[in-house]
Amino acid sequence: MPRSAPPQAVFICSDVYRKQAFGKNHPLSILRVAGVMDLCRMLGWLDEDCYLESPRADTPALLRFHDPDYVEALKRADSKGSVEREVRQKYRIGTMENPLFPGLFRRASTAVGGSILAAEQALLGRTAFHPSGGTHHGRPDRASGFCYFNDPVFAILTLLDGGIERVLYVDLDAHHGDGVQDAFASDDRVFTISVHEEKRWPHSGLVDDRAVVAARNLPVPRGFNDTELEYLMNHAVLPLSRAFAPQAVVLTCGTDALDGDPLSRLKLSNQALWRAVESLLELTGRNIVLGGGGYNPWTLIRCWTGLWGRLSGRVIPEVLPLAAQTYLQALECDLVDEDDIRADWITTLADRPTHRPVRDEIKRCAEAVMA
Ligand SMILES: [Zn+2]
Q: Which residue in 156, 188, 150, 187 sits closest to 170, CA to CA?
């Protein structure tokens, strides 16, 4: 069957992400989406007509999913710059994990606003790329896992408001998409699939976890490679997705499953992730691609830049222009040892594929979720 022309793709972001955030010693204090915007502009991939500035979600919008007392506590903590002990314990804010920093409330509500806008664009038949989205651990009443709000939930709610009856959510971040799964656990309009590293925080998303109505979980062992992802896509994720017959697709595409990420032990190349995303986007004409985790600035910026390139129909260059190489060379990250910075993280966009045999535990995982 001939493939139809790809839908128009839009890039949603904001300069709010250029501000220093998360304090000094946090895995998210590295350059992330601002670097993706910069590299895309250097490659000539971010014209005015495909870029949309992310609005901020206002408080009434946030209350659609989050509890009023939590939203109020977060707003107050942000303006005061401190929290009392009970507030810290109750809402998990002002901790090492979910620190307070200037502009926190604005930044978090901008990510929600961006995901709502992404859904509005998807409803128009576009593919919306919102790399600052993907805060998939956020809970109605507390922060969790570096996430204060849960923007993927808002993207899905907006699609449902727009009359979509079946939303597929696929989470390819190295961590279980627990907050999104739990938000829709008893709503059969939303089917969630999460592929994540086993035995890693938040330790949920076991292979037999199917939520109340519709979820599938594929926990994978360390060293998870490109061939194994392709196997799981072909033998589990895509068949399950097609059977659900979604009318819209929301993806969380963290880069922490890539080889070289300091917080997980999976070994995917960015090309494998791009292919997996593309295969899911063929299911419908209404697509939202969110970011997510990712703690190595080189692999993250290259992956999401290349992902935008693929979504917007660009050809990935073999070698990056010198200005882009200089930009990547200047990045810093305390969590990545200087000796571990690979030459091709500076000179190229596409990683070399990590093709290895498919291990039996991967085959068993696919079998279990299909049973
Ligand atoms: Zn993650």
A: 156
